Amino acid sequence: EYCYGNMFKDCTSLTEAPDLPAMNLASLCYVYMFHGCPLTKAPALPATDLADNCYAYMFYNCSSITEAPELPATILNYECYSHMFDSCTSLTEAPELPAEQLTGRCYYYMFAGCKNLSKVTMKALDKNTIISSSECLKGWLEWTGDEPALHTLTLANKEVYDYLKTHDFIHYWSKEDGATIILLDGNTIDDDPSID
To answer: Fewest CB atoms less than 10 Å from the CB: which of 23, 65, 108, 117?
Structure first.
């Protein structure tokens, strides 16, 4: 636990991150690792075996990051990505979130404060995995800009979209707000004849 926690926190001259090749993570291993660093690009994160809070706050307030790493894990852990990119104000595209099943607080405030974010893909399979995973999406898109015409959100299906919209998880990211919604079959919400 905490093996690299806070390791480079507030290192104001660190612009390039070291390689992080680990495939199996421990609880809190990267928590706050680069908090407040002026990184322009995040390191590759190939791990597929996650742990509780493993990436929590990892890039918190890294305001110069413009490109996020791929996040290949499809099995998630409690708060594994909590606040991971919180306040990364230069980030424009979120890494694809490929997990079909979610878990407690997995994406909790993950992109909060990313005010220039314009593209998000989240592949949770149905509303039941969201309902059963406590606070998994709470705050995940909070304070991500108030220009929905610039937002593109890709989701698995209409059921997930309707649930997120009804429960206000996609404020400024819904069709009604003016955002573009794409289903995994490639259609937009407007193009799908099954969607009113």
So the answer is: 23
